Amino acid sequence: xxxxxxxxxxxxxxxxxxxxxxxxxxxxxxxxxxxxxxxxxxxxxxxxxxxxxxxxxxxxxxxxxxxxxxxxxxxxxxxxxxxxxxxxxxxxxxxxxxxxxxxxxxxxxxxxxxxxxxxxxxxxxxxxxxxxxxxxxxxxxxxxxxxxxxxxxxxxxxxxxxxxxxxxxxxxxxxxxxxxxxxxxxxxxxxxxxxxxxxxxxxxxxxxxxxxxxxxxxxxxxxxxxxxxxxxxxxxxxxxxxxxxxxxxxxxxxxxxxxxxxxxxxxxxxxxxxxxxxxxxxxxxxxxxxxxxxxxxxxxxxxxxxxxxxxxxxxxxxxxxxxxxxxxxxxxxxxxxxxxxxxxxxxxxxxxxxxxxxxxxxxxxxxxxxxxxxxxxxxxxxxxxxxxxxxxxx
Length: 394
What we know:
Blueprint: H1 11-14, H2 20-27, E1 39-40, H3 52-62, H4 77-91, E2 100-103, H5 106-117, E3 123-128, H6 132-141, E4 144-149, H7 160-166, E5 171-177, H8 189-202, E6 205-209, E7 236-241, H9 242-245, E8 254-257, H10 260-273, H11 279-291, H12 293-314, E9 321-325, E10 329-333, H13 341-352, E11 354-355, E12 357-358, E13 369-373, H14 379-382, H15 385-389
Parallel strand pairs: 1-11, 3-4, 3-5, 5-6, 6-7
Antiparallel strand pairs: 2-8, 7-8, 9-10, 10-13, 12-13
């Protein structure tokens, strides 16, 4: 008797659930259009098109045969130089191109960081609710994703004392995500800096995912002061996504920043899983970092404005409680205490044409919540959510 494919594949992969967003998107096929066009609030995709000047430059680069060749493992030199200069400016620190590597998106950067720091049987603290791809990555690598609880009463900000109690000899790193996915919470600088001190004291790494750092609240231009001195080099790894900031997620461009010695080690992993990051966006981004500064700032203001529109839309419906909201996401407590999050999300999708993700996708203890991605539709669409949420029954 022939064995099925599950008999022969790595059980660490087989035991991981399927990617959740396609599962949720399948619900929309049952929506009959009764409340108008589908509103897809499931995935963190930029709602605006890339800047026309960026598209023009990428088109020219894509048409040049040189951009079709392999590039350096750690990324093209002009982008690493421009990115290091931007980091040094933003954080008022001394960060060189050798401290950076370009990756095929921030998920790739996270995978590299976890493979670099831990191996099968180790553990990493993940703030919960967690970003499901982080948890999936750790599970597939045989690394324990140890939940670091972030509670609504604390603004979904992790507490040092909770982390201290969870760190044992198996823990190799603590992950922070700010602004957070899925809650939108922005961690205060003193909290981030305290976590770096804790990791330094315990001899482990702080991995800080700042995918959404260009969408901080107006007037807040950096999340922390970790990189002002040199202590970060033996403690901190930072992850970033050009995809969100420049509205080019399909071009898969992210970055990892760490001390140059760690970047050299990370290059071994990158050589095996990507050889080089896609080069079309790499060729245009060195110009864009300076050239699109005003465009990015306007985009930040617009997307932050959408967060307020969403709050206004749900204000007449106090039974739907927005427990956290940021530039890209809102974390919403649904009004059905006896129902699971997936049941509620599926009902919203199939009957009201609003696709959100259930909190159960984001770790243990999240059945009471939905994640709403508010950046990928316009304010006019968000303002129409009131009637779609009103009087929903299960």
